[in-house]
Amino acid sequence: MDAWQLAGYAAWAISALLLGWMVLDAIRVNREYSEDLLLSSREGYDELLEHERTGDRR
After folding, report:
1. Whether pLDDT at 7 is above 90
2. Distance (Å, rounded) from C-alpha 44 to C-alpha 47?
């Protein structure tokens, strides 16, 4: 086994760890926050309304 094969196996292992971390984080976020909060865009919506009220166009 040469260094390139070891590097390839290491890359696959790192990618598997990252995938596991992302899945666990998605589960954790889903448990901690409601679907309404995660899908809301109130902050961007407020900024849009403020620009419409003042007539400011960016």
Report:
1. yes
2. 5
Two tokens, residue 10: 């290491």
Cα gap 44→50, rounded to integer Å? 10
Helical H runs in the chain?
3-32, 35-39, 42-54
Q: Kindly report the number of other CB atoms within 10 A of residue 7's CB atom.
A: 10
User: Quick one: average pLDDT of 6-15?
Assistant: 98
For 57, residues 6+ apart whose C-beta sits below 8 A from its C-beta are 51
Residue 41: its pLDDT value, please? 65
pLDDT of 52: 60
